[in-house]
Amino acid sequence: xxxxxxxxxxxxxxxxxxxxxxxxxxxxxxxxxxxxxxxxxxxxxxxxxxxxxxxxxxxxxxxxxxxxxxxxxxxxxxxxxxxxxxxxxxxxxxxxxxxxxxxxxxxxxxxxxxxxxxxxxxxxxxxxxxxxxxxxxxxxxxxxxxxxxxxxxxxxxxxxxxxxxxxxxxxxxxxxxxxxxxxxxxxxxxxxxxxxxxxxxxxxxxxxxxxxxxxxxxxxxxxxxxx
Length: 227
Ligand SMILES: CCCCCCCCCCCC(=O)SCCNC(=O)CCNC(=O)[C@H](O)C(C)(C)COP(=O)(O)OP(=O)(O)OC[C@H]1O[C@@H](n2cnc3c(N)ncnc32)[C@H](O)[C@@H]1OP(=O)(O)O
Hints:
This protein has four helices and eight strands. It has helices at 6-21, 46-60, 67-84, 144-159, and strands at 114-119, 122-127, 134-136, 139-140, 165-174, 184-194, 197-206, 211-221. The strands form two sheets. Strands 1-2-6-7-8-5 form a six-stranded antiparallel β-sheet. A two-stranded antiparallel sheet has the order 3-4. It is an alpha+beta fold. The protein has a single domain (4-45, 88-221), classed as Thiol Ester Dehydrase, Chain A. The two termini are 27 Å apart. The structure holds dodecyl-COA (DCC). Dodecyl-COA binds at residues 13, 100, 150-151, 154-155, 158, 166-169, 196-197, 218, 220, 222-223, 226.
């Protein structure tokens, strides 16, 4: 697989999923007991939908509103829950997480980073930790970095042309404070492979090239039937 841009990755991952969906061109038993996912294309405003909720998440952790405002927020949030609840679907049927052209692939759980490079030699993403991800004193919460790295390693495995793998371990070295609301870049790649085991590495840097954190993970290819 040659190096691709984020837009190429979006097209090719969709193509890959289409191939996988009908089993053609992909020996799906190599993906363990994972279900065969159909591509779930987001509508034109889905990115705005997710971004609006991310803004709400930021406000959830950065406001101190009077009680009457909180009461109105509860009412309006309950109305939203009522609006969306009828459309709840099982895993694999929501656009959330499947749209690689959107920050965080359109999942509010994931860090809202965009894929810049997606290739056999590695994956690069660019983005920010937001106010929602604050730990303390302007730094990203230490628990949000493993989330970034773990999801990146999943994509690194995919981009490397390997079957679905699960994380056996994930080690993070926090080298410098990782600031929120600052553009950063993360690179991940497969360092070496031993049978089912792919040892992956990643580096998180600021735009001056300072190493903020690095990570190593063991990604283990699933056996047939493994969840
Ligand atoms: C664009 C869309 C992309 C899509 C992008 C999607 C990204 C999502 C990515 C998310 C990835 C995750 O977070 S997954 C969620 C977090 N991870 C998990 O929940 C995994 C839970 N663990 C497991 O299910 C299991 O441990 C397995 C299946 C991973 C492995 O079990 P197993 O099949 O019984 O294998 P086992 O014999 O134990 O181990 C296999 C080999 O690995 C070694 N090994 C196993 N664990 C370790 C360990 N912690 N440290 C060292 N070595 C280990 C063993 O010694 C052995 O080596 P040797 O004797 O062979 O030499």
